Amino acid sequence: MKAVVFEQFGQPPTLQGVPDPTPSPEGVVVKVEATGLCRSDWHGWMGHDPDIVLPHVPGHELAGTIVAVGSQVRRWRAGQRVTVPFVAGCGHCRECAGGNQQVCEQQFQPGFTAWGSFAEFVALDFADANLVELPETLDSATAASLGCRFATSFRAVVDQGRVRAGDWVAVHGCGGVGLSAIMIASAVGANVVAIDLTDEKLDFARQLGAVATINAARTEDVVAAVRDLTGGGAQVSLDALGHPVTSANSIGNLRRRGRHVQVGLMLGDHARPPIPMDRVIAYELEILGSHGMQAFRYQAMFDMIAAGKLMPQKLIGSRIGLEEAPEALMRMDRFDGIGISVVTRF
C-alpha cells in the first residue's frame, strides 16, 4: 500500500510503498477513505511523543470501511463504515471498565502508539471497545474531521467544561480545536468570545457562533478585554492552542469559581507552564484537562449533527491527496488557512 512515512524526527516525510497491515486478534483493518491533518501529527513528527517508534506512519483522524477482522472480534464485520477515537482504550483496565477509555492505562493511539491513517489501509486494535459505526448520512471527510479536534472539543465543552446555556465561554485559539469548540458551545446556548491573532479566523469564528472576538495581536491585555466583554470574566475558558501564553490568559480571564479546560497539547518546551496557583485557590477555580472522547459518547454528537445543531462540515478548509500530505504536515506549525485539511484522495 501507499503510505506517508518519516524515518527521522523533523526530517521530510515521503510517500512510500509499504506492506499492507493485518489485523491483530482483537483488531480490524480499515480501508481509509479520509484522514484529517492535525497539529498533534506535527508534534509527533517533531519527536514530542515518546510512544512513536521510527520509521512511522502518522495520522489519527480517520474514516473508512472495514476490510479484515481479527479472530476475537465479535461486534464488527467487513463492509461496515467506521471511525475511531484518537485515544482508544484497551477494554480491559480499570479506567476502561469505568467508562473512561480516554485515559486508558494501556491506550492504543493510531498514528502514535501504532502506524496511522496517512495510508491506504490502517490496522486498529481493540475494535470491540472502540470502533464507532458511521451514520449513512455522514460523508467520510466530515467523519474523519470528527476524530480528534471535534470530538475532543465536544467532550471539553459538554463533559469537562459543563457549559450551560447563558454561560460566557472564552476560546483561546481559532484553529480546528478552537473553531469546533466555538460551534459546540454556541449550539448549547453559551455566549462565546473567540481570541486569535488574525482577523480572518476571527471573522470565521463569528460565522460559527462567536458573539464577540478579540485580536490578541492588537490587544495589550487579553485578560482584561475578556473580563470587560463578559462583565467580570468567563464561566468557562478553553486553551485550544496549547501555549503558555494562551493557557495563562485562559486561567486569568475566569470569574470566581470558573473552569479552565486545557485542550491544546502542551508538549516539548511548553510541557510544564507556570500556573497562577494563588488565583486558583482564591477564586476556587477548576483546572481540567481534556484528552479525546469515549466511543460511546459519539452518539450524542451524531444526534446534534443529525438535528442540524452542529455542522462540522463547515470546518473543512481543504481536501487534498495523500501525495500532498507530507508538505501539509510540515506546515502545521504555521497555522496557515482556515479550517481543517482532510486527505480524501489515495
UniProtKB/TrEMBL annotation:
Give the record's family classification.
Answer: Belongs to the zinc-containing alcohol dehydrogenase family.
Q: Where does the Enoyl reductase (ER) domain start and stop, copy by copy?
A: 10-343
- Cofactor(s) demanded: Zn(2+)
Keywords linked to the UniProt accession:
Metal-binding, Oxidoreductase, Zinc
Keyword Oxidoreductase assigned to the entry: answer is yes
**Could you tell me which InterPro entries the record lists for this protein?**
ADH-like_C, ADH-like_N, ADH_Zn_CS, ER, GroES-like_sf, NAD(P)-bd_dom_sf, Zn_alcohol_dh
Name of the protein in its database record: Alcohol dehydrogenase
Whose protein is this, by species? Labrys okinawensis
- MF terms in GO: oxidoreductase activity, acting on the CH-OH group of donors, NAD or NADP as acceptor; zinc ion binding
